[in-house]
Amino acid sequence: MISTRFTEAFGIEHPVVQGGMMWVGRAELAAAVSEAGGLGIITALTQPTPGDLVREVARARRLTDKPIGVNLTILPTISPPPYEDYLRAAIDAGVTILETAGANPAPYLDLLKTHGVRVIHKCTSVRHAVKAEQIGVDAVSIDGFECAGHPGEDDIGGLVLIPATADRLSIPFIASGGIADGRGLAAALALGADGVNMGSRFLCSVEAPVDEAVKRRIVEGTERDTQLIFRTLGNTARVATNGVSREVVRILDAGGDFASVRELVAGARGRRVFEEGDLEAGIWSVGVVQGLIRDIPPAGEIVRRTVAEAEDILRRRSLAVTPV
C-alpha cells in the first residue's frame, strides 16, 4: 500500500482522488471510489439545491462509510449560486473534506475550519498553489495543461508543473491532468506529488452517470481528440472535439465575443450529451488522457489496479537501481 502525506492527512488508503466533475460526481461514483480506498467526490453544483446536496451525501453514506469529499467550484457570475448555502449543506451532511476550485476560497475558510472541514484547493499554476497554502488550505490539487476543463492560461504540462510545485509547497498536493493508470501515479509520486486526481478516467467507469455513448467515444478517442476553446477570451477550456467545439473556435478566432457563442456552450446542452448520449448536442469536457483509456471498468477496479500497477513500477525501478 502506498502511504503518503495526503493519505495520512485525509484518512484514505490510496492516494487516488476522483475529480469533482459537473453532472458526473454523484453518490454512486463517489462511493465506489471511496469504498475501494480512494477519495470519491460529490459535485455540489450538480445538485439543484443545497438540500439536494444533503440528500446526495446521505445516499453515498448508505453505500460506504469511508471518507467522501464534496467539490464546490466558485466562479464570479451575474447570478451566482448560493455558495455559502451549499457549504453549510455539506457541513450539515457531515462532510469533512471539501475540494474548492475557481475563485479564492479565503472568504469561506473560517467557516470550514470551525467545523473541522479539511480543504483541498484546485490550482493551475505554482503561484496560485503558493497563495492557497498561504491562506490556509490543507492541500492543493495542481492541474496540468493536459487536463479536461479549465487548465489556466500558462500552458504548463505536468512534467514541469508537478516538480515546480513540489519545490514551493510544504503542504501535501496531488497531481491532476493526464493521469489514467499506475504509470501516471508512479510518475507523479516520483515528481514530488503526494497522490493523483483523475477525472476523465473515472468518467469512463461503470458507475459514472453518463450515457454509454460518451464512454465509448472516450475509449475510441485519441490524445489528439480534444479542442481548446475560449483561448481568445482568456478563459481556456479543454473539451471533446466535435462539431460544436469546432464551431466555437471558428467564431472566436474570427473575432467573435462570448455572446456570439453563448448558446453553443450552454451548460444545458452539455448536460444533454451526458444524459442522452447525443455527442453533438453541446460541448463536454475530457482530457488528452483519453488516449490512454481503453476500457470501461468499475470505479473500484480503477483504483485498485492503478495502485497495484504503481507499486509494481516503483518496486521494479527500485530494484533496477544499483547502489554506487
TrEMBL record:
Recorded hits in CDD domains, A to Z, give: NPD_like
What Gene3D superfamilies does the database record attribute to this sequence? Aldolase class I (3.20.20.70)
One MF annotation (Gene Ontology) recorded for this entry: oxidoreductase activity
- What Pfam families does its record include? NMO
> Is the Oxidoreductase keyword given for this protein?
yes
Q: What protein name does the entry list? A: NAD(P)H-dependent flavin oxidoreductase
Q: Does the keyword Flavoprotein apply?
A: yes
The EC number on file is 1.13.12.-
Listed A to Z, the keywords are: Flavoprotein, FMN, Oxidoreductase
Q: Which domain of life is it from?
A: Bacteria
